[in-house]
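ok so I'm stuck.
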Amino acid sequence: MRVAIVEDDEAQAATLKKYVDAYRRERDYGLADTLVFHTGEAFLGFCENNSVDIVFMDIMMPGMDGMTVCEKIRERNASMVIVFVTDMAQFAVRGYKVDATDYIVKPVTEGGFRLAMDRAFRKAAERNVAAISVKTEDGLVKLPVTEITYAEVRGHSVIYHTIDKRSFRVYKQLKDAEKELIPHGFVRAGRFYLVNVRHVRSVRDYTMDVGGEMLQVSMRKKKEVLEAVAEWLGKD
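replied:
not stuck anymore, here's the structure
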């Protein structure tokens, strides 16, 4: 798991890094080396082709402020855990707009940091279990599996469709997508589709409504699809 610090004050950044490194050593968690960025622009540039699980984000920075940075992050990454670090708590209240998990008021104490880190680590662990990373022309996008309605194969590509009607094309085979998605409530519906059973609204004859889109079910796979949907409903 990768933790980043975005803080223009070098002393504050060094303090946060010291706390993260101590947390990693003492808890023996699977944390990679801590990354430090002194501008929001540098952090966004890194995120174009790399993943970050938890970020401690200063709000008031020269150039692009932390809130704007997080708004841009959320355009392509719904799972990154955000913890704001700020001089004034009223600014952090706006964090609901970007689904911030927590905030710490400066000066940051080790006790306050540990409480925030505990919450952030639990949230990141939950999200990592159920998210896949998709490399696109625009950079790395992290997709929670619950937001993927179905995946389809076209030529040599797999296209992931999401609940907000976006689509992400990746060059891979459907069997590779199966390895990622089958453990998370997906079922093969035929030669061309993997469907997320939590988004199946109905199955009639050999057509199913998946998140408002009508897809064909193969004769051979219909029983398997119905059983998977019934099993999922039984869990609820």
